[in-house]
Amino acid sequence: MSTVTETGHPERDPVRYERNGPVAVVELHRPHRLNAVTDEVSRELVGALRRAVAEGARAVVLTGAGRAFCSGHDLKEPAPAEDPLAARERLERLQDVTRTIKRSPVPVIAAVHGWAVGAGCEWALACDLVVAAEYTRFMFPEAGVGLTVTNGVSQLLAAVLGPQRAKYLLMTGSGFTAEEARGWGLVNEVVPDGEHRRYALELAGRLLDKPPLALALAKETLDRGLGAGLEETLAMEVDLSMRVVGTGTGSDPRAGTDAGSEARAGTDATEAGPGAGSGTAEDSDAGSVSGAGGPHRAPAVPRPGRRQP
Question: Where in this protein does the record put region Disordered (predicted)?
């Protein structure tokens, strides 16, 4: 695989860009934080997705380094000191990830493993196709910390699951497995643990046999039908998110869209995980997150041979 990165210091890049022939591989690369989201990550991810199209890639695989796809917003990062305008601009940059995926003329395939929490879960489900390792856990912990979902989930989740199940997942913050996600139509393929990236690349290879214009039109046709009004939904989500900025219940934008804390438990830091809210575990940076019921430790990253709650 030929590897090209945006800077001369790939080890410091929060998002890495590689080419595997006509397929671009975009990798969230903060493994020490279970690829927790920061404003820089949002910016770099949008840049990498746009770069793939500009360079003529025929498909994109979006994945995460280390033991998780993405554990949500990074609670270890200092809360930004920002006025309402700056907060809105930051939220729009977060929304730009879904905008870019949906506007891309090439298929974007999520290769997910470990934890996909909060914004990480939103980004995965915004992709055109999703390949998940069998021990992946998904979760929307936002409501437990006084926040609301972003990246079009308020529309996309209900369109696939129906309003009742979508409300249940968002209101309770309950985690769900890769097999459950496949049964509900949120995931296309569940593959052996550790094989998610290889299977996603194979799926991308199958798409290369199709005429690029036909693929682009298939994507646009379905997205227009299912996502009519998506731009309005993205704008509405920013408006709703602004209502909790500075209220004290959701003033730290990272405090909830993250199962990361649990997803990174045992280390010290970030968002919430399955079942309770955060999601990880044994890095040296995870910690606890305070939800509706107070602080809690996060469970370990899902792995073979370990029964998940």
Answer: 245-309
